[in-house]
Task: structure prediction
Amino acid sequence: MIELIYDIVSEIENELVIPIMSDAFKVISIIGGLALWLMVVSVLIKAIESKLGPTGWARAAALWDLFSNFKWFIVTIVGLYVTVYSLALIANYVSGSSIVNPASFAGELLYKVFFSPFIEIWKSIAP
Result:
């Protein structure tokens, strides 16, 4: 009886939960990647604007915005890394064994969120 329940639960997990979570992760990673790249574009636009401003105060304001946008970009990346690292460290502590290396797991997850969807899109577009 227990094996039958286990088979049913594992079948539901394999058929429903994993595909939904996989698709949800792809959507979240694309949104996260776009947010990252919008921050990068914003920093680049402000860098150009700080050099091409018609007056000194316009260039100074663009430079201030450049530093402000870059600051939030760095804070976002570091915050995500520390959060994922902490969760992996807690998982290792709770399990009593080293399931994953927290540093490599956090780095790999950030790479998958921010870069891997665009690499996949590029591979599908390029011949």
Observations:
- The chain has four helices and no strands.
- Residues 1 and 34 are 48 Å apart (CA to CA).
- The mean pLDDT is 77.
- The two ends are 52 Å apart (CA to CA).
